[in-house]
Amino acid sequence: MISFSAYREQWFGNIRPDVLAGLVVALALIPEAIAFSIIAGVDPKVGLYASFSIAVICAFTGGRPGMISAATAATAVLMVTLVKEYGLQYLLATTVLAGLIQIAAGMLKLGYVMRFVSRSVMTGFVNALAILIFMAQLPELLGVPWLTYVMVVAGLAIIYLFPYVTKAVPSPLICIFALTALTMTFGFDVRTVGDMGELPSTLPIFLLPDIPLNWETLRIIFPVAAAVAAVGLLESLMTASIVDDLTDQPSDKNQECIGQGLANTATGFIGGMAGCAMIGQSMINVKSGGRGRLSTFTAGAVLLFLIVVLGDWVKQIPMAALVAIMIMVSVGTFSWSSIKALRTHPRSSSIVMLATVASVVFTHNLAIGVLVGVLLSGIFFTWKISQIFRVTSTISDDGKARTYVVEGQVFFASAGAFNEAFDFREALEQVVIDVSGAHIWDISSVAALDMIVLKFRREGADVEIIGLNQASETIVDKLAIHDRPGALQQLMGH
User: Fold this and answer.
1) What is the DSSP string of 92-135?
2) Whose CB among 146, 286, 295, 486 lies 3.0–4.6 Å from 22's, allowing a Cys bridge?
3) Range(s) of the domain holding residue 289
């Protein structure tokens, strides 16, 4: 559990950069929240209220300081059909239920599953997100006036060159203010935030989803809520790991699950949609100097202030400025070294990385991409370990006894090779199986050992197993049946 002093440091240890970074994120969140609302088929205020609520609550309850959570496309696409068929009220109830599921996941310590995600999958995840972030900007770059391209280039120039003048103010913030001032001063005919959708003018209010509380409702919302919860947690935990690497600071993944759950649960009661961590906005925050909880809180609080109080000004922000920022994020997020590493890294690692990228980009579903990567990682790892296995043997001088020496890992993938390494047709009086250099892992390896012992005994040989380590001896004593009556028939029956 985090100490009070550490928690206070996460809030007030980086005040000025956190506030400035939060301002940048708040401005960049507006068009994205509107876009995700459109994807889900709901009013823009649903995504905007959600982004405010999730960011502010996660600032207090999350396990990864400096990470930005809000309404996202990853969760929005899962709710499209539900909204079409049943309406907004069912979406709000789904949001609440998804949050409760995430809280349960955190309490069950499911955040530890991140240890099973390999570096190759992480790299593929990051690269895929970078590609998706860039692709998301294409609608703002195609079929637009030539002035848009000029402003995007100007925005990128400000972002990359202004830090050479001073780093006291984040260059993306200067980019937004400068291009907005130019647009308002000269009346440039370019697409603005106001063109994305109508901004709400009132504060969110507490409300209960207007749905019947029965089993039929649960049947409708539970599958969607479970999918939203799973995808949301997956993206949040992956993003948290990335921010961990960028900031050289650890995070509490289980607390992050609970924090995300609390945020989504509360959001459903103020008319917002479920969300999760945002890799793009988190990158903006980190690259702008944000490190603590204050940056996340500022992003959410300022977002609400901007849309409710300064909406008329915010509407005039040119989309070109935000596109420039997202291109910067895309370029900065992509792991360019991974391209060069394709030559030097093991082929299996490169395949996992490329498969993760391809799956995410093709499906636009982060969860599917990560699951494909994790599955391939598991298969390749299993194959590699199964190859670290061999059986050698020596015969006694009188030819009546043979000692088999087993080395390596004996489990389901190597159990077949383990069985085939023994010659049961050889006329022997005694067989010694030395497993001091091996480890017995699972029921498949124990069954293979049983079969070997019983086959030798069937041929009249006396079999002795020596060298079992403590862990192997425990599982063999528990599961082995070669000393029981009728053991061979039992094994053959299975």
Assistant:
1) HHHHHHHHHHHHHHHHTTGGGGGGGS-HHHHHHHHHHHHHHHHH
2) 295
3) 4-344
